Structure formats: C-alpha cells, structure tokens
C-alpha cells in the first residue's frame, strides 16, 4: 500500500512538472541590473531556490502587501531552519527577487530605496524597457501603464503572482493573492522536501 501511495505521488509530481514545462514559463534567461548596480542574469541564481514577484515601486498597496508576504514566507522558512539547528532536514535558503514592471521610473537608485523596506536579502531588478518586458514575457506577466494624472503620475495594472523557481531555474509553482504566507511557506517546504531536477 505504501509503495502504491508513493508511486501515485511520484506520478502526480511528474505530471505537474510536465505541465509546467509544457507551459514554458520562466525557462528563458533575463539580463537585468540589481539595486546595487550589478548586472544579473537568471542563470546567476541556478542552484538556489527563488521566490519572484513582478511589481513597481509606485504601487500604493498591492505590491507592498505582496512583498511583505514574500518576506514573511522567507522568514518562516528561516525560522524553521534556526529551530532545527544543525539537525537533519534543514531547508536550503531561498532568494527573494523583485522585478519591476515600470523601468521608466524604477531606476537602480529607486529600487535601492524601495527594497530596504522589505526583507534584507530582497534583490530588486530593473533594466531597459525591452529587457524588463522580455523578463515579464518569460513568466506571462501582464503589465499595462494607465493614463497619467495631472502631475504625470500613473499606476501600472499588472499580474499579482509569486513564482517559485527550483535550483534548476525552472518554475515549480506559483501563488496568487489569496494564498497566505503560511500556505505558501508550507508549499515551498513541500517542494524542497520532494525536489527532483527535471531531466532536460
């Protein structure tokens, strides 16, 4: 019975991985600049777990809420590690990333000021409009700037999703606004515990 149960779970994981691969989400590289001015590619994060969010620094409420949630997920996983200490089962660290959908306003300096309000390891990424659009396309991110107001300010309507990338750089899961930080942390933990690289 245990063998059949494990086999069923293995088949379900394999089917989910094939579905994600078929979607071709996030499989391309990106070429951006982080909030310290360092050039970054997606391949720089190979071997690391990544939680990724697309947003913009002028967002009045949704992006700050989602970045707070992202940071809290990372903290929950870190707390679990510190409680386990050197015992077996310590989870690998996870890298939080924030990619702007508004590169016209979100310069390196603007991102540096913005990300310091969130998790200390959060990296903000920006670049040319073309490079940012290419990164967004790889994850099928919707982003559309609205009309400017009298002062020239505008909002950007965009997808609200957290993406989980495995150490091979491929998308393993994604989480909408309705998922709590505890639910996301449990899901990430489960992915870490059962992770097997996809055969390429």
From TrEMBL:
The keyword Metal-binding applies. It is found in: Mitochondrion inner membrane. Cu cation binds at residues 59, 63, 158. One of its GO terms (molecular function) is metal ion binding. It is a single-pass membrane protein. Pfam families: SCO1-SenC. CDD domains: SCO. This is SCO2 protein.
